[in-house]
User: Fold these one by one.
Assistant:
Number 1:
Amino acid sequence: MAGAVETQAGRPPSIRAQVSAARTILMSTVAALGGFLFGFDTAVINGAIGAVRDTFQASQWALGVTVSSALMGSAVGAFFSGHMADRIGRPRTMLVASVLFVFSALGSGFAGSLWSLGFWRIVGGVAIGIASVLAPAYIAEIAPAHLRGRLGSLQQMAIVIGIFAALMGDYALATHAGSSMSVSWLGFPAWRWMFWSELPAALLYGIGSLLIPESPRHLVARGREREAVAVLRGIIGDTAPSKVVEIRRSLANLKVPSLGDLRGKRFGLLPVVWVGIILAMLQQFVGINVIFYYSSVLWQAVGFSEQSSLAITVITSITNIVTTVLAILCVDRFGRKPLLIAGSVGMALTLGLLAYLFGTAGMDALGNPMLQGSRGLLALIAANLYVFCFGFSWGPVVWVMLGEMFPNRIRAVALSLAAGAQWVANFVVSATFPSLQSAGLSLAYGLYTAAAVFSLLFTFKFIRETKGKELEQMEQED
């Protein structure tokens, strides 16, 4: 890296800036591969749910726990990842996640029982939890302020591309074999290949983690300031030495942070930590992952075929990608808080409409709601508008804010606690959905509507704008 920095010294400032931006984007992209695997691993189960249920004769409760088992591991991985990253560094922790992704993909595909599948999903969940913390933390720590919002949004872009890739792969495998239960290559059913399709990306993530430099803020915290200067020269150019001084001041009297450093005078934690935790949990309580974990069986339950349901899910994931691109273009222009407010309003309206449609739908002989004619089309439009509203706001912006809202000295630990809480919320939503579906979809979507309304009120009251601020400017509240 140092040699590359020296070759830039004689270049005009504009060319150096372009090289620095390209390097920063490349480093951020490698970190965001964890987001791709995050999205892929959580969504790949969508196409396999029906086959897993039929193969292992799973009850609704057991199926919900198995689908959500990855989220239990994610909470554990997120909770411990901050401490691990502060001990061994950001890229090495990413390498650990990569290895866990590989083992999870192999084990899930070879699972011989529902419980073994659940175990390997938990292993993958630990990797997801680590990746969910490391990507926003690393990107926030290497990105200059004017690029940080857009680069931070790469995490969500990678997540939604991962979701799309998983769902598209599920659709292709099920179509090629005839169904997810049908035999595919080498005599294995298609649903097993769905899990194994994660392996190439998991291996690429591990290779990439070996090639990117350590976070300059971690290097300064470890007393390796010369290395930090070398990394920063490739990002911000000749101001690197003064930036290291600024980082050193923000890390004055630093010890390796622990959960004890998050304690505050009121309610046990610092106010900024509580805001981060609630922000992260609200991202899940609005029910977004119900769309990506259960949409294939959800649309089948209201009258669509398996192939049509998978195709609808792919279209929804494309909507998610397009809106995330919109968020990347807007987050550094309009700020974080306005996007969150707009998204909350849109989600409340669309979720409320879905609750109404399911609540007033007729029932078939099995008690499933039947959306006939224009009502089915209206539900599809509302679901995709909901994904649109989430995709340009709470999807990417929450990860951007979690990466930048905490002070330097507690960032990794605070982010890991917030991400752990997010995965607990994700588990609660995902594990309870099959039971809520049995009780009535209007109840489920009514609860998600209430969460969207609360997210609007919470944003108005507690969210502080972080647009354009350097990380060292983030002040800790008393």
Number 2:
Amino acid sequence: MNKLYIITLVLMLVISACIKEDHFGLSKYGNIKVIEISNQASLAVINSDSLTATIEIPPGVETTALEVKTLKLSSFAKSDINIGDVINLSNNVDINITAEDGTIYNWQIIPFIASENPPLPNGDFNIWYQTTEGYYEPGESAETTIWGTGNPGTQILGLTATTPFEIEDENYAAKMETLDNGSLAGAFGTPISAGSIFIGKFDKNAIDPSNPEAAIDFGSPFASRPKSLKFKYKYTPGPENKDKNGNILPEGDMLDIYALLEVRTDKARRLATIWFRNGEIQNELTEKLIEFTYGELPSDAPNYMKPTDGEYVPEDALDYILPTHITFVASSSYDGANFAGAIGSTLIIDDVELIYE
């Protein structure tokens, strides 16, 4: 997947990133933006109206001593609970947030026990929300969705490479298309934008023109062991697959769809892998079922499927350990992160579902 990283985009994103809640005077805001507890099963549901953060805990996890792994607050706000603190989530936990202007907000962390077989929320892509910039993103809101797209990067130049697609009345899918960024972008080595959808967050504050994926925090908290992944897709590759310099490549364009289960502690270790890279024309929405490969991939597996650092979960823990995160990515051009692809390549994906038996 890729974003349009040319000078215009960078400047506009940097400027927009400087606009904080506390733009005028001392900030009155005392919100929890992101919170993550060790072993939580899914993304925390944060409600700034009720001042609650609801956290899903997997069955069987000892709840009396869970570590705060991530805590992001409103600008300049402070908390009486911090990263690294150990909290007891056998019951609700109070957390006081003090805004820059001294206002104190009494939040509650509310735990509940997860299903043993959790689904992917909005995996059917029927729910989309409209952003302030006018384009649509999958989910009910930016705060609650597990899904992200490359649109926050491409929309600066009026491009939205990922859009809702109505299959039939009120039944939507996600449509990804590889778009022409124009001659100016091409001169900067960013000729195309591949449509993409992923589990994770796009952070405009982390933008790095030299690393298109630096602004993306891939994955969401997850703690279960699905057997396989099922989805529906249709695909048409564009006519000319080119690299970022405009050279026609000998192979045609291909879609990329993959899912990873990871254990993230001191570092990320791969627990299970699914990868589907294919360039065949698929004119009809077709169901695909792929089993997760748990543990180390075979030596003859393509390098792109393997962890970049070679780290897998230790074999002696393979049969029982739970993942901490799940990642899912789909793109209309497999090498879009390097600004290579065929203009017009189109991927439609729907009904992404985890299968447990």
